[in-house]
What does this fold into?
Amino acid sequence: QVQLVESGGGSVQDGGSLRLACAASGRITRGYQMAWFRQAPGKQREGVAAIDSEGDIAYSDSVQGRFTISKDSGKVTLYLQMNNLKPEDTAMYYCAAELIRPPPSLDERDFGVWGQGTQVTVSS
It folds into this structure.
């Protein structure tokens, strides 16, 4: 059983930065792929960034160049460094994990383990 707990959300102004963390516990092995998703009020959940078991990374077009996904050396904590934040980045951010093969996926249907979410609010 794998559990995920996100932290690091908060409120920032347009152009600010935040770093999200996702602590994974349980039987998470090297084969797990991990990802960040977000859901704004009234919108569908969308994939933001993913990293597969080989370290390959995918970003959505909306965050490419501004967000960076990474994992620590022990591969039990996932991070999302968010720079140059915009009001449209306001959403609940979720960490997800699943034992799936590469390449990295931004499709929520591929993931079965989810954290509880952390709120990010960007004001103009």
Q: What stands out?
A: The CA atoms of residues 7 and 21 lie 5 Å apart. The longest strand covers residues 18-26. The chain has a mean pLDDT of 95. The two ends are 41 Å apart (CA to CA).
